[in-house]
Amino acid sequence: MKNRIASILAAGALALSPLALSPIADASTADKLPSRNVTSKVVKVKGHLVFKGHVSDNYNRKQVIIQRATCKPPKCNFKTYTTTKTSAAGKYDARVGAPAKGSWYFRAKVKASGGFATSYSGVWRTYRI
């Protein structure tokens, strides 16, 4: 019985592999580019909020766009809040704020370049207590 289950699993895996790896299987996969890994976090530094993170794949000394939405996405669209550049190590930071009432949502955006698609960080919510 164990041999039968193993052979069924192996046969199933082999049947799926060619479809997943075949460039002809889905026409839209040829148009897709890999995205960069954009990490982010919001920290408090000397009483101010700082949005900081790292962009992978040698994205050094290049532009990072910090975007803000004034209500919970996708209800509101993100708009450019500020821009900054990455360091020699691919790190970035920018001072952000919080509204007197309600919440703001921030994310980092890196434009497509070097064979990578436009990439985004996670979304962070800021508010006052």
What does this structure look like?
The chain has 129 residues and is an alpha+beta fold. 16% of the residues lie in helices and 39% in strands. It contains one helix and eight strands, in the order αββββββββ. The strands form two sheets. Strands 3, 4, 6, 7 and 8 form a five-stranded antiparallel beta sheet that branches. A hairpin with a 2-residue loop joins strand 1 and strand 2. The radius of gyration is 21 Å and the shape is globular. It starts with a helix and ends with a strand.
> In whole angstroms, how far apart are the ends?
61 Å
DSSP helix fraction: 10-25%
Count of discrete alpha- or pi-helical segments spanning 4 or more residues: 1
Write down the secondary-structure element order. Answer: HEEEEEEEE
Please tell me the overall pLDDT.
81
Overall morphology? globular
The number of distinct β-strands equals 8
Largest sheet: 5 strands, antiparallel
Secondary structure elements and pairings:
Elements: H1 2-21, E1 38-45, E2 48-55, E3 63-69, E4 79-85, E5 91-96, E6 103-110, E7 119-120, E8 124-127
Antiparallel strand pairs: 1-2, 2-5, 3-4, 3-6, 6-7, 6-8
Task: Provide a compact summary of the structure.
By secondary structure, this protein is of the alpha+beta class.
Q: What structural keywords apply?
A:
1 helix, 129 residues, alpha+beta, globular, 8 strands, 39% strand, 3-stranded antiparallel sheet
